[in-house]
Design goal:
Elements lengths: L2 H4 L1 H14 L15 E6 L3 E6 L10 H17 L4 E4 L4 E4 L2
Length: 96
């Protein structure tokens, strides 16, 4: 059994803490806003992490988005998590 599904809330708390310790702001709602991260447990996929800018600024801030995604992947990998990208890299899905 995949630990993302059996330990979802615990994995979400762990991921939230690791990202907060790394200096990221975790938004209280599911969606990211003002440069913070959206983090939630999806029982069918795992812990979802998203960072976004306003839709009209996606191209303008593409380099920043890539830097944030690289930082997130690095933090998750160093913490020993298994994860994958979804929706063209707009979401990271942590499965263990």
């Amino acid at each position: 059994m995949d630990t993302a599904f059996s330990a979802g809330p615990d994995l979400e708390r762990l991921v939230r803490q690791e990202l907060t310790d790394a200096g990221f702001t975790i938004e209280p709602s599911l969606m990211s806003a003002d440069g913070g991260l959206g983090v939630w447990h999806d029982p069918t996929r795992g812990v979802v992490i998203t960072w976004d800018t306003a839709a009209d600024q996606l191209v303008k801030y593409a380099t920043i988005r890539e830097a944030v995604q690289l930082a997130l992947r690095t933090i998750l990998a160093e913490a020993g998590h298994q994860f994958r990208e979804d929706f063209g890299g707009l979401e990271l899905i942590v499965t263990s």
